[in-house]
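Step 1: inspect the first sequence and its tokens.
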Amino acid sequence: MVVDNGAWQRYYSHWAAHRVVDDLLPGPVAATRCFRANREIDEWLDDVWCEGAALVDHDRRILLSTPSPAPSPACACLTEAFAPGAATGNPSSTSPPAPACST
């Protein structure tokens, strides 16, 4: 899911569920480019067919992803980078965190 200028767009790839976290690591612009290379869809997938998902919200500066079926070093890095307070070192911070690791 990509949110940009108030528009919500859903994209689908049959084979990309296990690399969603890897697609987020370079940041929101690269992730958006990657997601938009897939087929745009109007429907929602149910929990049987949806094996991975991500939200790149450019308006609110939020990156979210579902847990990968097989945790990876990329998932751990993303979790650490976007943990509350990662940008400021303050765990109670609500400011948007900056990535701690990117490619």
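Step 2: inspect the second sequence and its tokens, then contrast the two.
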Amino acid sequence: MKNFIATLQFKNCMKVLANPDRPNIYLENKERLPNIHKFEKYDLIISEVLAQLKDNYIDFQVTIMYFDNLESLGYYFQLLCHELGSRAFFPKSSTLPEDRIMAQFHKDYTERMKTHIISELRKQNPKVRLVLATVTLRMGL
């Protein structure tokens, strides 16, 4: 847990002594392959998420995936856009960035889109179902 807290750069963390096991909260920490297998490790991590996103579409559980670098975040975002095609948007006929069911959130992203993503995540039933983020998102919530 200390490694996770350090990676996300949390400060002044509060320990929750009650059981945090809730049906709407899930934490999974996956180990990556060594860098010699760069794209294989990326594909291995995202393949399960991509399959679930394709199957469940707008009913996919709202999920935030944190990344420690922009290279991997960008790779995943482009892969998802390519693999999902028109299903990357809701409605499928749209091509507006605001209608994507997945989003990227990092320090270089536009303030307008960051605001849009945060406001979506605060909704009861957001259109954005998957957010690929760096620690910048934690600072915005």
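Step 3: confirm your contrast with the notes below.
The first helix runs from residue 2 to 7. The beta strands are 63-66, 102-105, 130-133.
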